[in-house]
Amino acid sequence: LATGPRQNNSIFYEIRTYDIKPSKVKEFVEMVNKYFHLRTAHSELVGCWSAELGAMNKFVHVWKYDNFAHRTAVRHAVANDKDWQGKFISPALHFVEKQHTEVAYLVPWCQLRKPPKEGGVYEWVTFQMKPGGPALWGEAFQAAINAHINTGYTKLIGVFHTEYGLLNTVHVIWWNESPDHRAAGRHSAHEDARVVAAVRDSVRFLESQQNVLLIPLQCSPLK
C-alpha cells in the first residue's frame, strides 16, 4: 500500500542507478562526461553522480519528465539516436554490471532546489518506510526533515517518494560543502534536542536506511 498526497502536477523523476565493473569506472566516467550531451538533448538531466562512500562503483542519475507520454516519446527518440547509441550505449553495455530504475515524485511540501554554490558533495539518503505511504508517515517524516533544515546543519536539495520500484521508499538529497562539513553538522544534529525529538517520532515508521556520499560528475547540472 502506498497512499497519500503527492505533487499536484504530472511531473515525475526517473532515478537510474548503474553498477559499473570496477576496472571500467574511470573509462565510464570519461564516456559520461564526453557524450552525455547527446542524451540531454532529448530530456532534462537533474543530476549525475558517482558514489564515494556507502557504495562502490555506483552511478546515480535523475531525469525529469512532464508525464509518462513525454517519457515514452523521449525513450523512442533516444533509441533512434544513432550518435547516442553508437558512441555511448554500445560501448557502455560492456561496463555495466547491473541497472536499476525507479519512478518517483517530489513530496508535495518540497521543491527541487539548487545548492548555494558549486564544489560541494551530496548525501543521498534512502529511507524504507512502513507500508501505508505518506498518509501514514508523511507528517512525521516532514517534521524530521524540517528539523534538519531549520537548524541549518545541511542544505536540502529534494525529497522523492517512489511510484514504481520498491514502494514506500523515500530518497532525500542533501548538500554539504565537504565531507568534513557534513560530519560536523551530523554531530551537531545528534546533540540538538529539536532534531532528536523529531527523528524519534519519525523512526516509528522506519524499516531501514542507507546513506551514500555522492560526487557530481562534470556533466551534472547539480554540481
UniProtKB/TrEMBL annotation:
It holds the Pfam family NIPSNAP. GO terms for biological process: mitophagy. InterPro entries: Dimeric_a/b-barrel (IPR011008), NIPSNAP (IPR012577), NipSnap_domain (IPR051557). GO terms for cellular component: mitochondrion. Residues 13-111, 122-221 form the NIPSNAP domain. Gene3D superfamilies: 3.30.70.100. It comes from the Eukaryota. Belongs to the NipSnap family. This is NPS3A protein. The lineage of its organism: Eukaryota, Metazoa, Chordata, Craniata, Vertebrata. The gene is Nipsnap3a.
